[in-house]
Amino acid sequence: MRRTWSTLSRVPRESRVSAYSVMELLLCVAIIGLLSAVAVPHFARSFRESKIRQTEIDLQILVTAVRGQAWDTGQWPGGQQQDVAGGDPVWDLAADYAGLIHTDGRFVEWHGPYIDSIPVDPWGSLYFFDPDYRIAGVPYIVVGSLGPNGVGQLDHDSDNLYVIVN
Hints:
This protein is of the alpha+beta class. It is 34% helix and 12% strand.
């Protein structure tokens, strides 16, 4: 007996077999792979940009704290006088000798804390203060981050992020 559409339609639903062909499955896998190839780099770039933006916000907050301390005490973090050029970097802004959260007694007219806590940058490194940071050979006073690679103490490289204080 030859089956026609009309005879197939009379077969009970429970006895019909429904399945995807190999081609349909391969097509679905290819589409998912194509969408992933487009989306993953976009998300990675967005994630990196959000870390940079968070660092910029943190640096602006830290600059405000450093300026407040300098206004009150006439000294930069680490106890260096504002009117003296150069100086040593402060690698731990939460330390008492930095004077932003607590003081070790070296800051006259200290009215802090100037910030509640010092965050770490999104890559897990400490923010720093450098009164002699060289940009194209010119010294600047900066608050900065070692950037994504975390390298740069006394050997600053191109991925450092910083804000000039003065």
